[in-house]
Amino acid sequence: MRDALGPGPRTRVRRLPEKARYDAATVNEILDGALVVHVAAVVDGRAVALPTLAARDGEVLYVHASRSSALLAAVVRAGEAWLTATIVDGLRLARSGFESSIAYRSVVVVGATREVVGEEKARALELVIDRVAPGRAREVRPMNDRELALTRVVAIAIDEASAKVSAGPTDDGPEDLALPVWAGTVPLLTQWGEPVADRRGALVDARLAEDLPASVRALRGGS
């Protein structure tokens, strides 16, 4: 594993370079923490970006979509993909609208792509399931051959990457600091809510519906 993933020729941060991070630890922390990522490609001559889930395994990201997904088909044909991930941590409210901004952590990844098949495909899909709710892949019915055939999985190598972190006090200039305007940061906190059971089929049994699996208890901070 590399200690640094950049700067690369396509991922060097040029706007506000003081916010750039190229170390693998920061990049991986953001990739592992962002629930939704965006993958971009050129489809029929037009730029397209779509949200999806991604699971990281070392220096490889697995993304998936329907077999009919034109975007993932284009990514495979191109042999390369651009992927972004963002975590919003709050607001940085300055004394001027110009200096006000979002507190965020983001990553841009550029890497070679390949379609995933066979045993690696099944394992990658389990990683995606566990990425959302760790341990869930062991609790659900395994994917059958039809479902596997209807799903395309693409591996994106983390060939180069950069992170950008916007945090801390606002960037007000000396003149604005003298203004009687409130400024500061407002953290954004996210948490999972109370689980609501789907009381159909076997879960019409209230006792079974209330017996939360380990993956759901973990999301709620329990054991």
Structure explained in plain terms:
This protein has seven helices and ten strands. The protein has 223 residues and is α+β, with helices and mostly antiparallel strands. It has two domains: 17-173 and 182-190, Roll (Pnp Oxidase, Chain A); 193-223, no CATH class. Strands 1, 2, 3, 4, 5, 6, 7, 8, 9 and 10 form a ten-stranded antiparallel beta sheet that branches. The two termini are 32 Å apart. The mean pLDDT is 94.
State the fourth-level CATH superfamily of the largest domain. Electron Transport, Fmn-binding Protein, Chain A
Number of domains: 2
- Give me the Rg, rounded: 21 Å
Broad structural category: alpha+beta
The oligomeric status of these chains comes to single chain
What helical percentage do the residues reach?
Answer: 10-25%
User: Based on the structure given, which CATH architecture of the largest domain is correct?
Assistant: Roll
Kindly estimate the percentage of residues that lie in beta strands according to DSSP.
25-35%
Mean pLDDT over the residues? 94
Number of helices: 7
Largest sheet: 10 strands, antiparallel
Number of extended strands: 10
